[in-house]
Every structure is written in C-alpha cells, then in structure tokens.
Write a structure and sequence with these properties.
Largest sheet: 7 strands, antiparallel
Strand content: 25-35%
Structural class: alpha+beta
Distance between the termini: 59 Å
Helix content: 25-40%
CATH architecture of the largest domain: Sandwich
CATH class of the largest domain: Mainly Beta
Oligomer: single chain
Number of domains: 2
CATH topology of the largest domain: Jelly Rolls
CATH superfamily of the largest domain: Jelly Rolls
Amino acid sequence: MTDAEPLDRRIGDAVRAARRDRQLTTRQLAGLAGISQPTLSNIENGRVRAGVATLYQIAEALGVPPARFLADDTGGQDGHDESGHGVRLRALPAPAEAQLEAYEVTVPAGCSEEQAFQHEGEDVIVVLSGRGELTVGERTFALAEGDVLWIDATSPHRFTAAPTEALWAQVVTARARRRPAASTDN
C-alpha cells in the first residue's frame, strides 16, 4: 500500500457519496462532468487520483464545492496532480454552506499544471511567495510575491512556477449562485 492510496480512497468515497446523494449513476455523472465512465469508476474506487481539473468538473456537475472532495484528515489534497508534476492543492477549512472557498496552491519550481481548469464563479489569487505565471484563456500574467489578481474562473486557467522558484498562492473562489429553474406554473 502506498501513501497515496488512503487519500485516493477518501476522495473516491467523497465523490461516490455526493453522486449517490444526487441519485445519479456513474454513467450519468460522467456524462455531466465530461469524463468517461471508466475514469469516474476508477476515481470512486481509489485506483487513480483525480487531478484538480477533473475534481472541479465533477464538483460542478454535482453542484457541490470541490473542497468537499479534498477535505481529509490533513485538510486537503497533498501529493501529485494527474500529470505527476507535484502540484499541491489544499482546501482550507470552511463550513459546507459557505459561498467562498479558499485553497492553497503550491507549484514546485519549473512545474506547471498540465491541464487548465475552469469553473463557475470568480477567483482572487494572492501570491504568498515565489514567482511564476498564470495563464487565463489566451493571456498570461507574470506572478510575484505580493501580487493579487482577480479572474473570471469560467476561463480556462493554470499555474506555472518559475524555473528556479516554487510558487505558493492562495485562491479564494466566489461561486456563482445557481438560479432556480423558472416556474411554468401560472
């Protein structure tokens, strides 16, 4: 058993529980999240670690905050993203009903998130230390300690650390409130 297996299982269990709460099959959720059913099954069974982008897709499809899947005994997902580059995402504690989510993102020197991700809402990014770049859609922003950047999180975005310096940032996400479906009753 590797150190990663217990975390992968906890994430998988959280995804499965949220899917069952919504009374969806794995095929239905996979379709809503834009991933394959075998990939979702592997995530739920702890056979693979879902990357940040994939967790956001699943969370968006379920209407839950991604932090729901990242919460564990240590407070977050610690380890490698699906690219194996060592990007670390840690969800900071917040009540389940909170409209804001906060994460710490650590990108080792010379590494990049392999896959850009996007989600509903807005992000405010505060660079705590290090240097790097944030690519948002077609634009790239240089990042250095103390920088603060607001982005529309519906645009694909990803972090890259400088070649010789790790990047450590805090991301606060304000989720877009879902509007109730329009009533057809008169």
